Amino acid sequence: MASKSVLVTGASSGIGQACAQRFHDAGWRVIATARSTDGRHPDYDWVALDLNDADSINHACSAVKALVGTPDVVVNNAGYGLIAPVETVETGAAERQFQANYFGTLAVTRAFLPDMRERNSGVIAAVSSIGGRMAFPFFGHYNASKHALEAAYESLHHELAHSNIRVRIIEPGFTQTQFATHGMDQSYHDEPYYAQGLTTLARRLQTGDTGTDPAVLGELIFRACTDKGGLRHAAGSLAKPLLWARRLLPEAWFLGLITRATNPKR
Q1: Quick check: is 263 in a domain?
Q2: Share of the chain above pLDDT 70, in %
Q3: Which long-range contacts (CB under 8 A, 24 or more apart) does 150-159 make?
Q4: Residue 233 within a domain
Q5: What span, in angstroms and rounded, lies between the C-alpha atoms of 221 and 52?
Q6: 9 partner at 20 to 30 Å CA-CA among 98, 113, 169, 201?
Q7: CA-CA distance, 17 to 33, in Å (whole number)?
Q8: 4 φ, ψ to 5°?
Q9: In a domain, 248, yes or no
Q10: Into how many domains does the chain fold?
């Protein structure tokens, strides 16, 4: 029997790398994407993908189909974070954020859904963030893109409810990956009012050691995509406590908690 296949976008490091490794260890054929495919894991089929380039998306999806048809599981992990005060973000930077994290991800999703519907099977997953259900200072546009992605995937869950296609949203908390230093775009103009908050954030991202091992998220994604379960799956540092607090605390209490923890008064 032919092994099952999985497509993992953004698989060169961090959560995507851990996810691809977990599926590979379970005997799956892994098709992995990165913006550059040079020098990557030799046991995967690598395809170049840049979510900010429509031609790259089309070529990548065609290449995947040439390799395995439509994979049994598609894990949309690729993306990046724009760190900036909402006030200072240039429109082009915000548009690039949404192109990668929302429009590009949905383009990959849409490319494989027709075949999944025809065979009436498959799993389509999106790696979001706990920031897809709340917001943090200086992550406004990143959080907005993840809110939008979660809304689209929740809608997709309803639209596919009468099929055997499963939809999954993965919500990591803070994870110790290169995302904190290499997966961020700091496209904004300097404004002294925000300087201290940004300096504090940068220090925490670059020196923090409380994040979760990406392997924990790799295991979560594997189980979410291979076992029965619901739409949303969360893991990682502070993920479940924060989601619980968001759901149960009065809004003023929750917002105050986030402000004090992430952007304390000068």
Answers
A1: no
A2: 91
A3: 150/126, 152/102, 152/106, 153/126, 153/128, 153/231, 154/231, 156/109, 156/124, 157/231
A4: yes
A5: 24
A6: 201
A7: 10
A8: -75, 160
A9: no
A10: 1
**Catalytic annotation present for 153:** no
Residue count of the chain: 266
Quickly state the pLDDT bin for 3 (edges 50, 70, 90): confident
Tell me the two tokens of residue 151: 């809304």
Range of the domain at 226: 5-237
Whole-number pLDDT of residue 1: 47
CATH of the domain at 195: 3.40.50.720
CA distance 266 to 248: 29
- The encoded tokens of residue 201 equal 């954030």
247: how many CB neighbours lie within 10 A of its CB?
9
Take residue 217 and report the two structure tokens written for it.
């998220």
Annotated catalytic residue within 142, 153, 188, 194: 142
N-terminal to C-terminal alpha carbon distance within the chain: 63
* Residue 179 resides in a domain: yes
pTM: 0.92
Q: Identify whether the C-beta of residue 70 lies closer than 8 Å to the C-beta of residue 86.
A: no
